[in-house]
Specification:
The complex is a heterodimer of chains A (about 325) and B (about 220).
Chain A lengths: L1 H40 L11 E3 L6 E3 L5 H4 L1 H6 L2 H5 L4 H13 L5 H9 L7 H7 L1 H6 L7 H20 L8 H16 L10 H6 L13 H17 L15 E7 L5 E8 L4 H14 L14 E8 L2 E3 L1
Antiparallel strand pairs in A: 1-2, 3-4, 3-5, 5-6
Helix pairs in contact in A: 5-7, 7-9, 10-12, 12-13
Chain B lengths: L6 H8 L2 H45 L2 H8 L6 H16 L5 H24 L2 H33 L4 H55 L3
The chains are: A alpha+beta (about 325), B mainly alpha (about 220).
Chain lengths: ~325, ~220
């Protein structure tokens, strides 16, 4: 009798455990999935880091950014802005200002786009102002939440751009041509195209005031070629002067060896600036510019060396 | 809504039919083995504790009638069961047979019950060994199959990027993980139960002659 009852009891008992185990497994699987969903749905807000100082590699480059004083910080760049047109007379500096927009305002996505849309209309000079103005917006991270402020800032920007566009009597031709022509004028006035570089022996030899310049007067083929490649390099140069704390001693003497097919063979830094940012930007601009246009036939078939002096304002002559 | 690419759910939803089949086998293995573990744990533990308590009482009084009455309290203990079977045999024979026959019949009854108890104790335990041995291989099979399919798909896609290779392998590896998850507790439980059962069996072997002697020497 006892033996007859036991297996039934044991089976029932085991069945209960079986159900319990199945339920436990279901619960474990449910929990595993639920916890994962919970974990995935948890919104991890990125920690807001207040950056008081943005330091760049190198001793010379640092630019102070105050988060609180978004508006207080605004005057500083704008007060710095006016000297630009004064101290840099050639349009090369204007070109240098364009990359500032990209370099200074990488975080903001809405701002730079709008600014870029506004820039192409006026003369190449106004973008300098444009490049300066967005800084307060970039510095103040909460600017996005205040559309009224944005609208105001845009209005101000527009007004400034209009003023700038109206006041300078400079022609509103393409910035590239402008830069080229100004460089060429400069070359013409100085009469020594190779004076900026340590190389370009041929340029200095063949190009005199009476030289056989093709429409440049005293430039010679090297001068025009140098002006051409200078404008190309400037186009590829992404550098913001505003990111340098001071511009003292910020000169980069660099010479490049250009092969007959226009490829930059060597880049030699004769003198580097204290700021690695400037040095690197120059190097990148040169690398980006390769290959350059073919060397003029007047220069012979071999390679040539051309030197440049880069300053925060642009390529110096 | 649950994201289809989310964790375990994503892996399962993207897995192939063979991998899913393997996973379902492993899940059922795991459920059964955990049920066995729970059932056997309570059974063996109770058997051990009741056997100890009965033995203490038996050697204390050394009276078969009183011991039989006491054994009714320990219905799940192995030793009390064996004792009860011997006592039932002893009373069934009464004075019909001589003492030599009586001893042999009681010894046979006790041995039979000890064997039955041993079988009862070790029932279902071999399944744990089976799970412990085969689950990793079943999981491995699922993984191999999954990787095979995954490589086949990679070949079709003509891309060997990490983005193309990794998801398939990840899906496949869940089968091995499931196999190990089923096997590890099963192996541990198997070792534990075999040890506990061996203790009880040893007690049965040792004390069965004691019970027989107690019936024969009954005053």
């Amino acid at each position: 009798m006892e033996k007859g009852q036991k297996p039934g009891y044991a089976e029932k008992n085991f069945s209960l455990w079986l159900v319990a185990a199945a339920l436990t497994h279901a619960l474990v699987i449910f929990l595993a999935i639920y916890l994962q969903i919970l974990d995935a749905n948890r919104i991890v807000k990125p920690k807001i880091v207040t950056v008081s100082i943005v330091s760049l590699p190198g001793s010379g480059g640092s630019y102070e950014v105050s988060e609180k004083g978004g508006k207080e910080a605004a005057p500083a760049p704008s007060s710095e802005a006016p000297p630009h047109p004064a101290e840099s007379k050639n349009s090369v500096t204007v070109k240098a200002a364009i990359p500032e927009v990209a370099a200074v305002t990488p975080k903001k996505e809405t701002k730079p786009v709008k600014v870029k849309e506004k820039v192409p209309e006026p003369a190449p000079v106004p973008p300098k102002k444009v490049a300066v103005k967005p800084l307060p917006e970039k510095v103040k991270p909460k600017a996005v939440e205040k559309p009224a402020d944005i609208a105001k800032a845009l209005e101000r920007l527009k007004q400034n751009v209009d003023k700038k566009a109206a006041s300078p009597p400079q022609p509103s031709a393409g910035s590239l041509n402008n830069a080229l022509s100004r460089l060429q004028q400069k070359v013409k006035s100085e009469g020594n195209p190779a004076s900026t570089g340590t190389g370009s022996e041929k340029g200095s030899g063949s190009g005199g005031r009476s030289g056989a310049g093709k429409g440049y007067g005293g430039g010679g083929p090297t001068a025009s070629y140098q002006a051409e490649i200078a404008s190309i390099i400037m186009q590829n140069w992404e550098f913001s002067k505003l990111l340098l704390k001071n511009s003292y001693g910020m000169e980069v003497y660099v010479r490049i060896n250009i092969l007959a097919n226009g490829t930059i063979n060597k880049i030699v830094f004769d003198k580097k600036a204290p700021s690695e940012y400037l040095n690197n930007s120059v190097k990148k601009a040169l690398e980006k510019s390769s290959p350059l246009p073919l060397i003029p036939k007047e220069e012979g078939k071999g390679d040539i060396w051309i030197g440049f002096v880069f300053t925060p304002e642009g390529i110096e002559k | 809504m649950v994201d289809s690419k989310l964790g375990i759910f994503g892996l399962l939803s993207d897995a192939g039919p063979v991998v899913l089949f393997v996973l379902s086998i492993l899940l059922s293995f795991s459920i059964v083995s955990w049920a066995i573990m729970a059932y056997k744990f309570t059974y063996v533990r109770k058997s051990l504790s009741e056997s100890r308590a009965f033995l203490d009482y038996f050697f204390e009084i050394y009276n078969v009638d009183k011991a039989f009455v006491e054994s009714e309290k320990y219905r799940k203990g192995s030793l009390p069961r064996v004792f009860r079977s011997g006592y039932v045999e002893y009373h069934a024979l009464g004075d019909k047979v001589d003492i030599r026959q009586l001893k042999a019949r009681i010894a046979r009854a006790v041995k039979r019950e000890a064997n039955a108890e041993s079988k009862r104790l070790s029932s279902l335990v071999p399944f744990l060994a089976t799970v412990g041995n085969t689950a990793p291989f079943i999981g491995l099979f699922g993984t191999v199959w999954g990787i095979m399919t995954s490589f086949h798909n990679i070949g079709k896609a003509q891309s060997a990027s990490l983005a193309a290779v990794a998801p398939g392998i990840s899906e496949a590896l869940i089968a091995t993980a499931a196999g190990l998850a089923a096997a590890i507790p099963a192996v541990m439980a198997y070792n534990y139960f075999t040890h506990q059962i061996s203790i009880i069996e040893r007690d049965l072997e040792e004390f069965s002659p004691e019970f027989v002697a107690a019936f024969i020497n009954e005053p």
